[in-house]
Amino acid sequence: MNQITTVIDDSHARLDALAELSQSLLERCRAAGASQAEVSCSEETGLNVSVRMGEVETVEASRDRGIAVTVYFGQRRGSASTADLREDSLAATVEQACAIARHTEDDPAAGLADAGLMAAPFEDGRWRDLDSWHPWTVEHDPQRAIDLALAAEQAGRDFDARIENSDGSSLGTGTSLGVYANSHGFTGHERSSQHSIGSAFIAGRGDAMQRDGWYSIALAAEDLEDAAAIGRRAAERAVSRLAPRTLATGRYPVLFSAEMARSLVGHLLGAVSGSALYRRASFLLDSAGTQLFPDWFAIEELPFMRRGFRSANFDAEGVATRESALIAGGVLQRYILGSYSARRLGLQTTANAGGVHNLQVAANTGDFEDMLRGMGRGLLVTELMGQGVNNITGDYSRGAAGFWVENGEIAHPVDGVTVAGNLKDMFRAIEAVGSDIDARSHVRTGSILVGGMTVAGEG
């Protein structure tokens, strides 16, 4: 008879306790003479298991707590943190933050975000439901977690006789609770869950070995791919890479698979982030309002997406989030700013303290097969290696592996090549974005076809 695991959800009581703690800490900060203060309190729990070759390698349960206090004395700032809830530790944390602030220089950009920008719940006191809380009972059932990881690995090992070895399979599950409060009177609660299953395999033997994997990740366990299907897909990807060839050096169309395409969006985000801009360390300085992409290209920020990985009612400073365009008609509409970087630039925060909240890259064509047919002949990139991106100049050069495409179909695997260009040129040369969205990230994009890049291989 199967054992049924029942878990009582005490998350609201725990959030209330964190909120009470944050208010107590704010009172301590005021009593110490701080003109402004902010407190972040968090609790995280989780279970991670890993298996390899049919044997359990690790089973790790975690429970972590974090408390961060930031105080402002005018425009002098100090921060300190602790995981200890004892009274003397909390008092010492506030004292340390105050001591740091008193010994720092004035910073004209320092301070809380403007009070008028703080998020507010609905009239009944509820926040918008983002559907982000889906604890998995597997967190309290290690044997079930192990069984799922083993099922993923076994399915991959059974998939093809050329799977000679395994890099293992893993399962992770966890929940996170957070409260942010500041001396404007703002207090915000957040709770979320996240679960994942992944596998990696080695096909072939000796110098002919190839490795690849696959994973599924979601806020709700019901949205995960089946464990056995994950193992089979990981094995299929490893086998498909056997007997790779290199290419003659030349200029070719390059199709970035969806999971690789989001790295291109990541480079854009890094270049338009406030910290890079005020440090003058970006190839996109003074680019707001300019055409960076083809006129059909668009990226929208969607902070209220249900079950989105970065959905939020407010950012890390309590500022109300909002749906807005980052790119529209190929034009950069704004930067990515928190209040500090905004003040350094003479602008206003875009509610992105802590990062962006779900980005959707608009597709202009069909699925992956349509993208292959549209490219006709060129390189499909499914793996990128190295860190060869210069954020100041935009120069781009990374090792790559994938497949050569001929007549709109995959012809053979490719390894040992480098793809190079400049990100400004690459952005302008984007010819298509597919509808094959990789939903495993807060950056949601399909595959992206760049019309021409230098591919360095043989000769």
TrEMBL record:
Residues 141-242 form the Metalloprotease TldD/E central domain. GO terms for molecular function: metallopeptidase activity. Transmembrane segments: none annotated. Residues 37-101 form the Metalloprotease TldD/E N-terminal domain. Signal peptide: none annotated. Keywords: Hydrolase, Metalloprotease, Protease. Residues 249-457 form the Metalloprotease TldD/E C-terminal domain. Its EC number is 3.4.24.-. Belongs to the peptidase U62 family. This is Metalloprotease PmbA. The lineage of its organism: Bacteria, Pseudomonadati, Pseudomonadota, Gammaproteobacteria, Lysobacterales.
